[in-house]
């Protein structure tokens, strides 16, 4: 234990003595939070929506058909009561609920106007405003066919829009989980692989291996500091999100931290795996970027919604841990979802982590024994 | 006086697939001697050294280092030896004192033991004024000396030096060898590989490896006499040059 602690202490000294490391650790998260506070535009195609039809008359049936027929939407579920709305949103499968009031058809014939509610999931603000915009458009078209001309003034059927989870459509709501996802990859996977490969490059790993430190002590000693720094980073990001954008964590902080720990373990295992494959720090950086960071950025749903991608990218993104992690922490942070809503994703992420851990441990062992001279 | 064997190697074989890296090596190293291990690149000296350090297992044969069986308890060997490699073995972004503390700690010494020994060492090397400097601010010669001092800081029975002086100027090499002599005089056995043939002359005994086997082993003067050469360099070229067909 004494040997191990001496080793861990040295690793912390490395980190705190290197300005570049400190910038990556603390500067980049802060900069990203501020930069990504601005939105990125996205388009809408076949977004899943739910319909709560309280009217069940000709008008509501016709409107449902029109929504379904448009290329923007797919009506994937029909709800029975208001009570189901919250749960449906938390499952994250639908982007909006369109609610037809009981007296829709009756009121239309009696008074010549009616109102339809649209509740959108504003976790992703861009998608939410597109969804409500297009829905309103379809309602207006229908109104026009009823009256035979496009209405000036008040439409016959007026949409009443409500944003769920994020009433002011603040787009940084969706970026904060994305930033956590990326920063954790940088710190856990990138920095550990570089830190281990650095020892190879400088020849110090050889000296460590000849020392009485056991190989597992070397590896755990190398990655342990990054585990704690990663957690520390999560806390900084959450605090910044709160103080700068007033973004609270709606769900359980303990659950969020636990999921982050799981994801950090995944990153560390990945970093170790890379360090067993390459001998140069540049290569460690390139591989982490190509395999984890870039696909994580583009395909995980961080910037571009997965439902808008061609199916093939959807499948590809399924093997990316960041995708699952985003799907876990976004509902926890923004919708206040509990483990009941994210257990499946958690299980997938845990499976990936275990796989990477076993693989990297085996690779590391083989690597030590096979080195010929 | 009977010389005490500190390394005993008998019929050591190390095979990588079909490739025979070490082919039935047999030799002994005695306590307190400076033993030079020479050979062309690929002759198998690194492989043998890795086995002696407990880093890899022999395919067959008996290897005992500091009284411990290298096939069965290589981890125990690691506690009793020191090691310095051709590549730089100190951490450049740590200070001189921190490097010493780190290696002392890794070898299981407590800070209570480390601190007085560290100060005594710095004093002996006249390094006290560099104590809190980062390694990368030190000139190469000083680093090399310090790396050696760190490799023997925990009083190992044997210290392994893997081409410790490559890329170092002649003056520093000279000073480095003075440190090696001093260490050996305290009873620490020095096992050194080198490419410099003048350094081979400084050793008590040398072994020359060629194609996985020991081609010659004795004191430099005895070998020169035996092969009728004027220097170890000539001797080396005569014995260890790899055959053309093999390259």
**Number of strand segments of chain A:** 5
Topology of chain A as a string of helices (H) and strands (E): HHEHEHEHEHEHHHHHHHH
In DSSP terms (H or I, runs of 4 or more residues), the helix count of chain B works out at 9
The helix-and-strand class of chain B reads alpha/beta
Overall number of domains of chain A: 2
The level 1 CATH classification of chain B is Alpha Beta
* Spatial shape of chain B: globular
Main β sheet profile of chain B: 6 strands, mixed
The chain pair forming the largest interface, with residue counts per chain, is:
A-B, 29 and 40 residues
Descriptive account of the structure:
The complex is a heterodimer of chains A (373) and B (247). Chain A is 68% helix and 9% strand. Chain A contains 14 helices and five strands. In chain A, α2 (19-35) packs antiparallel against α7 (172-202). The relative contact order of chain A is 0.11. Chain A has 373 residues and is α/β, with parallel strands linked by helices. In chain A, β4, α6 and β5 form a beta-alpha-beta unit. Chain A folds into two domains: 2-38 and 171-370, no CATH class; 47-164, abc type-2 transporter like fold. Chain B has 247 residues and is α/β, with parallel strands linked by helices. Chain B has a single domain (5-246), classed as P-loop containing nucleotide triphosphate hydrolases (Rossmann fold), CATH 3.40.50.300. In chain B, β7, α6 and β8 (189-193) form a beta-alpha-beta unit. The radius of gyration of chain B is 18 Å and the shape is globular. Chain A binds chain B through residues 2-3, 5-7, 9-10, 13-14, 17-18, 202-204, 206-214, 368-373, and chain B through 16, 19, 21, 44-47, 49-50, 53-56, 75, 78-79, 81, 83-94, 98, 101-108, 110, 160.
């Amino acid at each position: 234990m004494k040997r191990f602690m001496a080793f861990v202490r040295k690793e912390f000294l490395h980190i705190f003595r290197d300005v570049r490391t400190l910038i990556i650790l603390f500067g980049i998260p802060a900069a990203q939070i501020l930069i990504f506070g601005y939105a990125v535009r996205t388009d809408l195609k076949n977004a899943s929506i739910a319909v709560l039809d309280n009217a069940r008359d000709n008008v509501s049936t016709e409107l449902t058909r029109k929504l379904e027929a448009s290329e923007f939407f797919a009506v994937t579920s029909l709800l029975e009561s208001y009570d189901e709305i919250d749960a449906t949103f938390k499952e994250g499968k639908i982007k909006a609920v369109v609610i037809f009031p009981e007296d829709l058809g009756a009121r239309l014939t009696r008074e010549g106007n009616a109102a339809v509610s649209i509740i959108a999931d504003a976790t992703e603000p861009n998608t939410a405003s597109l969804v409500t915009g297009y829905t309103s458009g379809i309602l207006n078209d229908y109104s026009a066919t009823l009256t035979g001309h496009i209405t000036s003034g008040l439409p016959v059927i007026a949409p009443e829009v409500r944003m769920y989870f994020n009433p002011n459509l603040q787009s940084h709501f969706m970026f904060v989980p994305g930033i956590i996802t990326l920063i954790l990859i940088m710190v856990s996977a990138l920095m550990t692989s570089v830190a281990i490969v650095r020892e190879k490059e400088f020849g110090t790993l050889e000296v460590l291996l000849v020392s009485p430190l056991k190989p597992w002590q070397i590896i755990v000693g190398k990655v342990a500091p990054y585990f704690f720094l990663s957690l520390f980073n999560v806390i900084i990001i959450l605090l910044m999100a709160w103080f700068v954008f007033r973004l609270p964590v709606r769900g359980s902080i303990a659950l969020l931290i636990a999921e982050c720990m799981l994801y950090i373990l995944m990153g560390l295992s990945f970093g170790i795996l890379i360090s067993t494959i390459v001998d140069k720090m540049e290569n460690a950086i390139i591989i982490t970027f190509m395999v984890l960071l870039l696909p994580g950025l583009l395909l995980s749903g961080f910037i571009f919604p997965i439902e808008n991608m061609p199916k093939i990218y959807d499948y590809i993104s399924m093997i990316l841990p960041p995708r699952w992690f985003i799907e876990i922490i976004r509902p926890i942070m923004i919708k206040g979802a509990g483990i009941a809503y994210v257990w499946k994703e958690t299980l997938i992420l845990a499976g990936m982590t275990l796989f990477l851990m076993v693989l990297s441990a085996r690779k590391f062992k083989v690597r030590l024994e096979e080195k010929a001279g | 006086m009977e010389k005490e064997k500190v390394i005993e190697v008998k019929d050591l074989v190390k095979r990588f697939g079909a490739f025979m890296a070490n082919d039935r090596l047999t030799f002994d190293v005695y306590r307190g001697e400076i033993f030079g291990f020479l050979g062309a690149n690929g002759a198998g000296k690194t492989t043998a050294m890795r086995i002696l350090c407990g880093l890899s297992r022999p395919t067959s044969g008996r290897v005992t280092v500091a009284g411990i069986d290298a096939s069965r308890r290589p981890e125990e060997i690691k506690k009793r030896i020191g090691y310095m490699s051709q590549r730089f073995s100190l951490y450049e972004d740590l200070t001189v004192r921190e490097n010493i503390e780190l290696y002392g700690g890794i070898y299981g010494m407590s800070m209570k033991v480390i601190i007085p020994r560290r100060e005594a060492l710095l004093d002996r090397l006249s390094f006290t004024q560099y104590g809190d400097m980062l390694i990368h601010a030190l000139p190469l010669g000083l680093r090399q000396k310090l790396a050696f001092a760190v490799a023997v800081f925990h009083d190992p029975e044997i210290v392994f030096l893997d081409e410790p002086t490559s890329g170092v100027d002649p003056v520093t090499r000279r000073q480095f060898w003075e440190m090696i002599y001093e260490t050996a005089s305290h009873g620490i056995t020095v096992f050194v590989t080198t490419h410099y043939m003048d350094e081979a002359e400084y050793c008590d005994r040398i072994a020359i490896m060629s194609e996985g086997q020991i081609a010659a082993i004795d004191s430099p003067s005895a070998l020169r006499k035996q092969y009728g050469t004027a220097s170890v360099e000539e001797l080396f070229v005569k014995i260890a040059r790899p055959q053309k067909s093999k390259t």
